[in-house]
Predict the structure.
Amino acid sequence: MNGNHSNLLRDSYGRTVRYVRMSVTDRCNLRCLYCASPFRQEFIPHDNILRYEEMSRMVAILAGMGVQKLRLTGGEPFARKGCDQFLLMLRQQFPSMDLRLTSNGTLLEPYIPLLRRVGLGAVNLSLDSFDRATFARVTGYDLLPRVLATLDALLSACIRVKINVVALHGVNDTQMPDFIHAVRTMPVDVRFIEFMPMGIGTAWNQKTFWPVDEILAEARRHAHLIPVTERRNEAGPARMYRVEGGKGRLGCITALSCHFCADCNRLRLTSNGHIRACLFDDREYRLRGLLRRSKFRDADIARILRLACARKPIGAELLRQRTEGNAVAQKSMMGIGG
Ligand code: SAM
């Protein structure tokens, strides 16, 4: 399943795609201010969403081209019916795939025994504040107790948890003591993600942007941070730190201040079957039609995947153009999957 050498998905910068983020739905039960569009949301019609069988065919093709890690995301993955059975199906069909999940944690708790059975590499839990009022302000819903119960249940089930915190000036920048407390007391990675300007009408601006230097300075006011050196293939985009005496770790994902495009090894598959080679590149490659017409073979799909990969850009340049007000990265994260 690792793909033979000639079949690997390599791009024109010498990067190899090993990781796919697959959005199972564009629907979400929350309205996070950094993610959802402020305009009326048009959801993708049901018929245009890939069926689970189509998604799993895509995974088979990608696995044959060297993809080793698969993340289900959304929207909210568990907002789509049958997501639990889909995970099981993936595990049965791809026993050695590193399967992961990104979730807001509000619908997850009943499925934790199944997640344990499936053997996920980790669950990334979006949790932007441990303060109930701030959580409700960010997500639009007063559901912090439910997410905290899910976090406890995941840890009790010995499932690895990474907490994603979108760093927001004027929102959660005064709450570092809560995050440090989490790192001290729980075996979790708390990762601050720099707020990225994605989608038309994004709330991103110089006032809401909390840059990594300031995040780390604030963290150092509350704890002594010890840098962690990770093996290259485990590092991912986050720079991680230990906190003296802590069970967990704290880190930052810095798409804007210090990009990690040189090591990017990912492709994205949207829920309607489009390949997006780079988060910030609005060019998408439509595969749904090919998946649905019998005259197209896996080899035809593989050809498009190779094309998308060959054209994969250095996204940081696009992101810079976006921060200067140019019309790039026009799709909201909810539609892409983060
Ligand atoms: N609903 C799930 C969740 O909340 O985790 C999965 C989808 S969400 C789009 C995936 C990730 O994207 C979340 O961790 C979220 O924090 C991140 N995200 C969304 N919009 C973002 C933005 N504008 N800047 C940085 N991170 C963002």
User: Anything to note?
Assistant: Residues 28, 34-35, 73-74, 76, 102-104, 126, 164, 166, 193, 195-196, 198, 333-334, 337-338 surround S-adenosylmethionine (CB under 6 Å). The mean pLDDT is 94. DSSP finds twelve helices and twelve strands in the chain. The first helix runs from residue 52 to 64.
